[in-house]
C-alpha cells in the first residue's frame, strides 16, 4: 500500500523492524554527562571522561549482548568515542548486530505560563545535527520530554510536549533516523492508576494527532511510553497483571497497529518489577512488538558489581547479560522469577 515517499522511508521501516525483533529490546545508556555523573557518584567515582568511557566500554563490549539487545541509545559523547583500544563504540555495536541510537534532545527547561511544568529543547539545528549523527553511524534517535501528573498536567504542557515530539519525529525521519517518541509520564505523586490512565490517554491522543499532522510515517517510529501504574507514593502497589491490563488498554485505545514497536522505559521501577511487568504484557499476542528500553532497570546491578574496578568488569558484564536475558524472556512472555 502507498506510504509517504521520502528519501529514507524504506530504510526507516527496516531499521524500526530490526530494533523491534523478537526477544530483543533497547539498552538505554544515553545519560547526559550530569546524569552519568550521578550514577558514577553512587559507586564513589568522579565524573571524568575517562570514567564515563570505562563504564560505557564495559557495557558495550559485553560478549553476547546482541542476542538480547537490538539497539543502544548513546549520548553524543559516546557516539564519537573510542574504546581504550581505539575502536569506535559504534563499531562495537555493529559487530553484535545492535543498532546505534542517539539522544538528540537538549533537555528540560521551565515552561513559562504553566503550573511549574517543563518543556523540552532541541529543535534548533536538529536537522543538521541529525544528518551528522547519521553520518557517524546512528540509525535511530530519542527525544524525551516529560509530563507531571501532580503538576496538572496543564493543557499547555501536554500540547507543547506533543508538538515538540512531532516536530522532532518529522525532522528525524527526514534525516534517516527512526524517532523514538517518548513523552514520559513521571511516576511521582500519590495518584491512582485510573488517574494515570486518564492522563496517558490524553497525552497519547495529542501526540498522535500532531504526528499525523506532521506527516510522520508511523511504520518508521518507535514509542517509549511509561507503563500505566499508580503514582510512586500511592498507598497501594499494582500487581504486574494490573499494570499490564491498564497499560495495554491505554495502548489499544490510542496507538495504531502500524507502529512496529513499543519500547517501555523503566522510570524508577526496580529491575525485577520492570521485568515482571513486561512479562505480564506479553502473556497474549499484541498488535505491536512490546519490549523494553531500560536504563536504570538494566544498569543498577551492573554498577554495583563493577565499583569502578578492572577486576570486576567480567562480573559486571555478567550481571548486564543476566538482566538483558531476563527482559528478553519477558519480551517473549516466557520469564519466570
Ligand atoms: P529508565 O529506564 O531509567 O527510566 O530510563 C529510560 C530512559 O532512557 C529515559 O529516557
TrEMBL record:
Pathway: Carbohydrate degradation; glycolysis; D-glyceraldehyde 3-phosphate and glycerone phosphate from D-glucose: step 4/4
Organism, scientific name: Xanthoceras sorbifolium
Gene3D superfamilies to which the protein is assigned, alphabetical: Aldolase class I (3.20.20.70)
Top EC class of this enzyme: lyase
Top-level taxon of the source organism: Eukaryota
Family that this chain belongs to: Belongs to the class I fructose-bisphosphate aldolase family.
Lineage: Eukaryota, Viridiplantae, Streptophyta, Embryophyta, Tracheophyta
EC number: 4.1.2.13
Keyword set includes Ligase: no
CDD domains per the UniProt record, alphabetical: FBP_aldolase_I_a (cd00948)
Pfam families, per database record: Glycolytic
InterPro entries according to UniProt: Aldolase_I_AS, Aldolase_TIM, FBA_I
Keyword tags: Glycolysis, Lyase, Schiff base
Signal peptide extent: none
Catalytic activity of the protein: beta-D-fructose 1,6-bisphosphate = D-glyceraldehyde 3-phosphate + dihydroxyacetone phosphate
Coiled-coil regions listed: none
Name used for this protein in its record: Fructose-bisphosphate aldolase
Amino acid at each position: 500500500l502507498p506510504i509517504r515517499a521520502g528519501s529514507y522511508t524504506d530504510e526507516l521501516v527496516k531499521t524500526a523492524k530490526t530494533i523491534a525483533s523478537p526477544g530483543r529490546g533497547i539498552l538505554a545508556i544515553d545519560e547526559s554527562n550530569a546524569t552519568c555523573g550521578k550514577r558514577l557518584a553512587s559507586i564513589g567515582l568522579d565524573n571524568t571522561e575517562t570514567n564515563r568511557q570505562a563504564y560505557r566500554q564495559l557495557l558495550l563490549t559485553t560478549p553476547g549482548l546482541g542476542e538480547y539487545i537490538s539497539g543502544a541509545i548513546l549520548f553524543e559523547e559516546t557516539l564519537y568515542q573510542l574504546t581504550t583500544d581505539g575502536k569506535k563504540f559504534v563499531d562495537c555495536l555493529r559487530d553484535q548486530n545492535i543498532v546505534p541510537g542517539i539522544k538528540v534532545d537538549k533537555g528540560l527547561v521551565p515552561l513559562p505560563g504553566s503550573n511549574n511544568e517543563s518543556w523540552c529543547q532541541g529543535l534548533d539545528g536538529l536537522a543538521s545535527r541529525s544528518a551528522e549523527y547519521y553520518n557517524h553511524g546512528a540509525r535511530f534517535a530519542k527525544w524525551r520530554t516529560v509530563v507531571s501528573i501532580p503538576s496538572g498536567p496543564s493543557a499547555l504542557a501536554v500540547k507543547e510536549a506533543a508538538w515538540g515530539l512531532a516536530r522532532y519525529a518529522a525532522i528525524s525521519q527526514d534525516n534517516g533516523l527512526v524517532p523514538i517518541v517518548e513523552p514520559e509520564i513521571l511516576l511521582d505523586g500519590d495518584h491512582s492508576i485510573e488517574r494515570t490512565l486518564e492522563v496517558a490517554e490524553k497525552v497519547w491522543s495529542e501526540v498522535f494527532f500532531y504526528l499525523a499532522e506532521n506527516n510522520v510515517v508511523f511504520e518508521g517510529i518507535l514509542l517509549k511510553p511509561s507503563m500505566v501504574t499508580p503514582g510512586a507514593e500511592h498507598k497501594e502497589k499494582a500487581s504486574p497483571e494490573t499494570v499490564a491490563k491498564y497499560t495495554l488498554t491505554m495502548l489499544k485505545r490510542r496507538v495504531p497497529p502500524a507502529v512496529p514497536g513499543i519500547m517501555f522505559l523503566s522510570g524508577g521501577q526496580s529491575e525485577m518489577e520492570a521485568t515482571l511487568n513486561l512479562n505480564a504484557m506479553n502473556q497474549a499476542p499484541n498488535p505491536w512488538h512490546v519490549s523494553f528500553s531500560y536504563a536504570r532497570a538494566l544498569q543498577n546491578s551492573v554498577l554495583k558489581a563493577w565499583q569502578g574496578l578492572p577486576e570486576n568488569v567480567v562480573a559486571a558484564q555478567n550481571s548486564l547479560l543476566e538482566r538483558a536475558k531476563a527482559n528478553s524472556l519477558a519480551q517473549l512472555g516466557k520469564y519466570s522469577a
